[in-house]
Automatic annotation (TrEMBL):
Record protein name field: 4Fe-4S ferredoxin-type domain-containing protein
SUPFAM superfamilies reported in the protein's UniProt record: 4Fe-4S ferredoxins (SSF54862), FAD/NAD(P)-binding domain (SSF51905)
UniProt keyword Membrane present: no
Gene3D superfamilies named in the record: 3.30.70.20, FAD/NAD(P)-binding domain
Amino acid sequence: MNHLDPIDCILCRCHGEIDGIVDFDPLRRQLEADPRVRTVDVFDALCQGDAVEKLAWRVLCRKDRKVLIAACSVLARGGELVDGLCKHGIDPSRLMVADIREGCAWIHGDHPGQATRKAADIIRMGICALRNREVSGDVKIRVQPSVLVVGAGPAGLAAAAALGRAGVAVDLVEAGGHPGGMLNRLSRVAPGDRIPEKILAPLLETLQANPTIRVHTRTRVTDIRGSAGDFTVTLAGKDGDTRTRAGAVIVATGAKPVLPRGHYRYGRLPGVISGMALEKNLKDGLTENGNTVFIQCVDVRNEKRPYCSAVCCPAALKNAIRLKRTDPGAKVTILHRDIMSPGSLLEAEYRRATRAGVRFIRFDPEDPPRIQGDDRVTGVRVTDVLAGEERHLEAGRVVLSTPLEPRGKTDREDPVMNAIGLAVDTHGFYRVLPFLHTVETTAAGVFVCGAARWPVLVDGAMAQGKAAAAKALNLVAHAVRQASGLIGFQERRFGCARISQKTCSGCGNCVAVCPYDACALEQTKDGLRAAVNPVRCMGCGSCAAVCPNGSASLPEMSAKTMVRMIANAFAPETPAVPGGDVGAAGRPVDAGK
């Protein structure tokens, strides 16, 4: 298959979504007159009926020809179309999708003439890119048939149990002495006022009954090496250091509650306690009767922590209801900036609180409540912003609702982030990929669930643990995988970066900018040279963008190819030289240079 051979063009009408704006008649005439194009076919809708089978049959009959498909974006159905063709045995390097729907017809609906000209430019650039495309090399990875789960809270337990039921070997690592995480510290679980032990029981039974799950308590992960499919993990436990191997890693290290130090006389005035202290009292049966005031959003939704922790309001609602049931005569009040109770279940919890007699008063964060009392709490003064008046609430106890925050970034507290190089968001929580990939990280084979990725209630943490288990199972279920297929958030990567060892100067720019930790400097006989890990590389092209001498490149989209594409965008409608790409004003661009 010569890169100068003419290609086949496929135009998709998309049931009129495209050709209702883009005029296919002149577009087709231009393509048929283009010497770089062998054939032009029009389909009504490539994503409907048996269109993929028909297209696959045509492509297979035309042997090694390359095919440009002008249709919707790869982020819409274009990617699924390529995947469908690949399932029929077609090499994806022969295929390219040019977006003439979202990026053209849809956004230029009021200007069909301009949309048609733009579609011609996009297709012409796609032809140039496809003809000059090289193919990245790929490697096969022998996958370890086991998974490492770090953290045995509700998310980690749910992940380990799901994998164990699927017959996968699991190493469950817990820094504490007992599995359960935050559930061990709660008196009840919201919504529904459920007993934590009843939630934990079936998960712990699975751990005890399943021989494929090995539980390591009082153990920490001190080092992780390798890549997706084959990680080498060092564990430091009560019996010393041990090593294990895993094909995937699930991070479920959770978060920690913030202590309200420096707020509302906490630690200085008896009766002012944290939400977690109230949980402990309730769990130990030390509930004291009397009036109670909850203050929400303590040390959160401010400059230091500009986020809503999502779990504080449900916890306060749950505990306020319990206090009213224990002592119906007590006055229980929740002072809030906004009550966060999304979803039908939490909304029902809020309504149960109001029916139980819990009072709600909204305050202005610029005018926070004032704690009354000398030797201990006697009450709270607060300005009710809805009523526009100041209220005095008699109370013997004030409960400060504080957020969850990341566990930290030190080697002792967070070795996984340091060992694997996981990215964190601006608040310090593990960053996951957006949209539909909520447990996948930028490190292939590493998944995050539970409060390690964001504060979450127990049910949500367990659901995320199961989701992470499904992703990990999909990875380790195959003994051998192609490196390009280890990427969970896309069917296949665009390409794999290549670095010329002859011209690399070892400056390290590529190492500094790579978001996937795929580039590294290695000592060679000629000095430091950059190298690419083909398993971790996602083909983003950051290394090529910062390389000062062009040593780093993406074979699928080299700098020379992009220059030719730009030249084709300003070319006349029909190339001037048969078999060659064209430049501005019809000047030929030699594809061999």
